[in-house]
Every structure is written in C-alpha cells, then in structure tokens.
Specification:
This protein has two domains: 175 residues, Formiminotransferase-cyclodeaminase, Chain B, domain 1, CATH 3.30.990.10; 166 residues, Alpha-Beta Plaits, CATH 3.30.70. Helix content is 35%, strand content 22%. The protein has eleven helices and 13 strands. It is globular and about 60 Å long. The termini are close together. The relative contact order is 0.13. The mean pLDDT is 94.
Length: 350
C-alpha cells in the first residue's frame, strides 16, 4: 500500500473549536487517517499527523490549509514558536511504497494548488527546495510573519508558487518533502530561557556565532557570520520558556535520528546542564516517534547498566521511557506515540 505521512503545523494551539474545524477537514477525506493532534498553548501552535494515499494526503492537506486560512488570523497571533503563516509548515514524508521523489512531486502539486487557488505565497523546503538557501526551514522563516511584507518585495524571496503579494490574514506557508522528523523537548529545572538557549547552541549542528576575545562576532571576508559547529549533526535546537509548565526547555528537531539519536543528545544535555548548575528533569515528545528510536534508547541504557539488551521490545521501550523521563510533564503512552502502532491500527481503514 502506498502511504505518505503529512505533519502540518498550524498557528493555533488555544482555541479548540478552530483546531477541530481544521482536523475535521482531514478526518472527512477518503483514504486518509488522522493519527495525532498535539496542541500547545504557550507556542500557540498545533502539530497534526495524518497518513494516507498520495492523492488522499494531497486533498486533505489542501482542505486543512484552506480551513486554517479561514479560521486563523495571523494579525492577532502570538506564541513562543517561530512561524510564518496560519499553516506554517506542511511536510510530506514517504512511508510505504513511496519514494522521496514521489513526495517532492506531491509537494510541488500541493504548493501550486494552494498558491493558485488560495492566494497564499508558498515556499518549498528540504528535498523539494528549488534553491539551496531554501532547503533549511529556518532560512525561510527568518523575519517570521511580521517580516513577510518586506521579504516578499525582495527578488531573492519570490515564492515558489503563488504571487509575491502579502496575505495579511494567512501569511505564507512552507511545503516540502523530508525524512521522518522527531520533535522533542528536554526539560530543565529553571525558567531562564537564556540558560536553555546556551545549551541548545552547544548541541545543535549549526552551533553558535564565532566571537573574538572581546565578545564581538567574527565575520568572513564576505561579511558573513562565521559559525562554530555544535556537537550533533542533523540536530536543530533552541531554548525557550514554556509558561504551561513554568520551565525552560531545549526544543529540538531531529532531522535524522539515525545519525544523532535522542538518547545521546539527552545525555549530553544533562552534562551541559550540570556545567551551568542546572538539572535535566526529563523530556517531552511532540507528535509521534519511530519505534526504532525508542528501541535504540532502551538498548543503550541497558548496556550502560551492564545488562543484556536482548529483552522483549516492551521492556526496551519501558527502559527508554523511564531513562528519558518522558512522563515528566505529561503521561507518555507508547501505544499512542509510536508511529508504527498508529499505522497498524489505521491501515485497515484506508
């Protein structure tokens, strides 16, 4: 069966009626199954996960983007997470009998349809990007929604689809194709965002700006800031304060968990926190996670304890959940959070 995963992020995490109106569009689409809806009040953002046939996913994504443009007004939006539009980002992920090239084609088709029919400027990112500087989502988001009017006037930032005309209510949307992404937060026993950011800079691949002895940022001959790389490849991270929990978190995106798995970054974050007199209290998963990522963590922690990792999968998963403190701020249910479990339950309905 051909299956594509879609993980749109909508700039609304507080109004349940608006969120339901958007997800209803997905649920009502044939050949599609809604897997997860994860709203956040402080971020004012909802991460939705659904799967389906390529054609079903394209239809459901379009309907959801359209509904988000109707019920969300970006002129009134504020939240802790960076964003560029009512539907901020809409990635397509190959799951079964579908190639990355298929998802790139799907991203183009969806982008063209949204840009033409809804009047929303569309940027393509990751594997669907048509320009190197647009591959990284952070580059496209720079300036956020508030900077869009000027950005659209810049010839270098003409949308991939849609007119370069500012849509004040819906903003812009970033559509792309990528591998599976794990959205993950590490919790700290502090409310100081700057301390969380300090750790994030040391962990993330991009690292931080290089500075001289006086603390001034060093630039190259072209005037570009020189970065000192962080410790982990395929890791994006930022520090923020979450009012819902009353703590600061290191918010992390793993763009390839096989290169840099969550458990290694979690342990390194603990070491970095100790240097600052802090303690990591646990972590939080946003959305879904591949089973293998948890199995890897379970084996890792059992081996650190000097025990054999040759135990049933449920034992490995339980070890991972306890070791990573995934129940720290909210209950963690593997049945609902492991993506393979969701696929098995929903495949029969597609």
């Amino acid at each position: 069966m051909k299956l594509v995963e879609c993980v749109p992020n909508f700039s609304e995490g507080r109004d349940k009626k608006k969120i339901k109106a958007i997800t209803k569009e997905i649920e009502s689409t044939p050949q599609v199954a809604l897997l997860d809806v994860d709203p956040g009040e402080s971020t004012n953002r909802t991460v939705v996960t659904f799967i389906g046939s390529p054609s079903g996913v394209k239809e459901a994504a379009f309907k959801a983007i359209k509904k988000a443009a109707e019920v969300i007004d970006m002129r009134k939006h504020s939240g802790a997470h960076s964003r560029i539009g009512a539907t901020d980002v809409c990635p397509l992920v190959p799951v079964s009998e579908v190639t990355m090239e298929d998802c790139v084609k799907l991203a183009h088709e969806l982008g063209e349809k949204v840009g033409k029919e809804l009047g929303i400027p569309i940027y393509l990112y990751e594997e669907a990007a048509q320009k190197p500087e647009r591959k990284n989502l952070a580059n496209i988001r720079e300036g956020e929604y508030e900077g869009l009017p000027e950005k659209l006037k810049n010839s270098e930032w003409i949308p991939d689809y849609g007119e370069p005309v500012f849509n004040p209510k819906a903003g812009a949307t970033v559509i792309g194709a990528r591998e599976f992404l794990i959205a993950y937060n590490i919790n700290l026993n502090t409310y100081d965002r700057k301390l969380a950011q300090e750790i994030a800079l040391n962990l993330r691949e991009k690292g931080r700006a290089k500075r001289d002895k006086e603390g001034k940022i060093i630039k190259d001959e072209n005037g570009e800031v020189i970065d000192v790389p962080g410790k982990f490849k395929a890791v994006k991270a930022v520090g923020w304060y979450i009012e819902d929990y009353g703590i600061a978190q290191i918010s992390i995106n793993f763009t390839n968990y096989k290169i840099s798995p969550p458990h290694l970054v979690f342990d390194e974050a603990r070491k970095e926190a100790e240097k600052l007199g802090l303690r990591v209290t646990g972590s939080e998963l946003v959305g879904l996670i591949p089973k293998e990522a948890l199995l890897m963590a379970g084996r890792y922690y059992l081996e650190k304890q000097g025990k054999s990792p040759g135990v049933p999968e449920e034992n490995l998963i339980r070890t991972a959940v306890i070791s990573l403190g995934l129940n720290d701020v909210s209950p963690f249910d593997p049945q609902k959070k492991i993506i393979e479990n969701q696929f098995r339950e929903e495949e029969n309905t597609l």
